Amino acid sequence: MSEATRGNRHLKRARQRVHLTQEQNADKLTKLAATMYEAGELTKRTSVSPRQYRRWESATPPWPHPDHRKLLERFYGRSIHELGFTPPGDVPPSTLTVAEPVPVLPAARTEVETHDLVNRRKLLTTGAAALGMTATGAGLPWLSRTAAAAPGDGDLRVTGDDVDLLRDAAHDLDAIDQRFGGDRLWRGARNQLMWLHHLIDEGIYTDPVGQELHAIAGQLTTSLGWFCYDADRQTEARVYFSEALNTAMLSGDDALATRTLSNMARQSVDLGKAREAIRFARIAQAHATEWSAPPRVGALLAIREAQGHARLGDEISAGNAIKRAWQHFEHGTSQRDPDWTVFLNEAELTCLEGMCRLDLGQHRQAVRILDQSARLQDIEHSRNLGMCLARLAYAALQGRDLDHSVHAVSESLRLVEGGMTSTRNMKQLTLVRNGLSLHQAHAPAREMVERLTEYTA
Q1: How far is CA 364 from each of CA 353, 371, 445, rounded to the nearest angstrom?
Q2: What is the pLDDT of residues 94-147, one digit of tens each?
Q3: Can you name the residues that pair with 157 across neighbouring β-strands?
Q4: Of 36, 168, 196, 260, which residue is the least packed, with the fewest Cβ within 10 Å?
Q5: DSSP characters for 241-261?
Q6: d(Cα 341, Cα 228) in Å, to the nearest integer?
Q7: What span, in angstroms and rounded, lies between the C-alpha atoms of 416 and 385?
Q8: What DSSP element (H or E) covers 269?
């Protein structure tokens, strides 16, 4: 079979008609993207690498991101479907055996928006099959039909306004996690995700709305994995992370893959899988290159890699990765920074470096850095402050500075009493309690052990 037959011949013919190589085409698309962004036609600055373009001309081209779809359609003057791209899970209309109702759309909608509705049941079935390798060995809970989906219900139409509300709700959950932690959050987030999948499965919507729904579902799934991780529900966290990564791979969403692999790297460190954490962080860096991720993403991925090296006791590699993280961070923020990197302020990156120093056994340096981080933290990131204080207490304990350790524990418990819930945090405080219990002659330490026992019983 020839290369032309195996690849996306529709896009290849369109490129050949304008007499461009793949590299030249990628460069022109990147320049057009800058113009469209300045005109407000794209949601963020974007670019197209030659590698990305070659993937689009491959035999199994990934479904482009929304901005990339607009870019390709503008450049070639053809719809994304005429260029040989098919939404994940879609099938040719002739193979469908069940006709779904087509919504009445305003006359102002574009040709792309009026594309046939996504075969949602086909897509969900494909997704369930892809999840056969989850830790439970079965489909995820939201893939079963709900009572709200019973036959005879009225049409469930999903509009752009609904999409905006769902996206805002997902962002709110992430903000609540930063303030209060995941212990009391994961259940509500799971219910939100179940409802979102119900809309995807049973709703009536245009193709652009459907793509937005799937994008929000992917982001919410990785968020739910993080909430479960913070609540120390590690098996469930890995299931949700795996689902989010599957979604990213199926849809070609490199940003979602980057975020999810970053989360997985952090969890792997806590699970004692340091080499796995390093591998996840490096794969995430490769995905970040695909969407020309901004420096703040580079800082996050570098510090994730550093945490893996530190847990292995590799001081040189950890130090190099920490240095890269700060170099990326010093480039500052940009309009392209995704919402999921907002938490990585100076206080948090300082804390993460302190955690690396602690894992490397550099206790005095860890105390100094974590102390600095605690002073920089704000109320909006109370969970991170609680974790920083718990690590500071442990580092001070290792350095036999009992008064410092007791004070840090007291400050962390003050946040717990204010509503911050994080099993991760309480597990770290339990380690401190166990260490302080060896110093019964020190009255403040003895009193703090009694107080901590009340919280951790």
Answers
A1: 13, 11, 20
A2: 333 333 333 333 333 333 333 334 443 333 333 333 333 333 333 344 333 433
A3: 204
A4: 168
A5: HHHHHHHHHHHT-HHHHHHHH
A6: 19
A7: 11
A8: helix 254-270
Nearest alpha carbon to residue 200 among 271, 146, 121, 135: 121
What is the rounded CA–CA span in Å between residue 190 and residue 265?
22
The answer to whether 409 and 432 are in contact (CB under 8 A) is: yes
- Whole-Å CA distances, 392 to 147, 181, 261, 266: 48, 19, 27, 19
Q: Which of 86, 89, 84 is nearest to 8 (CA)?
A: 84
Interatomic CA distance for residues 163 and 207, integer angstroms: 13
CA distances (Å), origin 81, targets 63, 72, 106, 110, 253: 10, 11, 21, 14, 18
Q: What is the pLDDT of residues 300-342, one digit of tens each?
A: 999 999 999 999 999 999 999 999 999 999 999 988 899 899 8
Helix residue ranges, H only, 313-442:
315-329, 346-359, 363-376, 382-398, 402-417, 423-436
Report the range out of 61-65, 88-92, 193-197, 395-399 with the highest average pLDDT: 193-197
Tokens 């022109």 — which residue? 28
Distance CA 202, CA 198 (A): 6
CA 194, CA 143: separation in Å to the nearest integer?
A: 8
The total of other beta-carbon atoms located within 10 Å of residue 18's CB is 11
Residue 376 CA to residue 385 CA, distance in Å, equals: 9
What percent of the chain shows pLDDT beyond 70?
84
Cα–Cα separations (whole angstroms), residue 453 to 80, 219, 232, 298, 387: 61, 37, 19, 40, 18
- The Cα 255–Cα 284 span in angstroms is 9
- Look up tokens 């920074």; give the residue: 337
Do 209 and 159 contact (CB within 8 A), yes or no?
A: yes
Question: CA 145, 182, 264: angle at the middle one, nearest 5?
Answer: 80
Q: By the 8 A CB rule, do 256 and 218 touch?
A: yes
DSSP class per residue in 67-116: HHHHHHHHHHTS-TTTTT---TT---GGG--SPPPPPP--TT--TTTTSP
Is it the case that residue 150 has pLDDT exceeding 70?
A: no
Contacts 24+ apart (CB under 8 A), 29-38: 29/53, 29/71, 29/72, 29/75, 32/71, 32/74, 32/75, 33/67, 33/71, 36/70, 36/71, 36/74
Q: How many CB atoms lie within 10 A of CB 173?
A: 21
- For the CA atoms of 103, 106, 107, 113, the dihedral, rounded to the nearest 10 degrees, stands at -60
Is pLDDT larger for residue 264 or for residue 164? 264
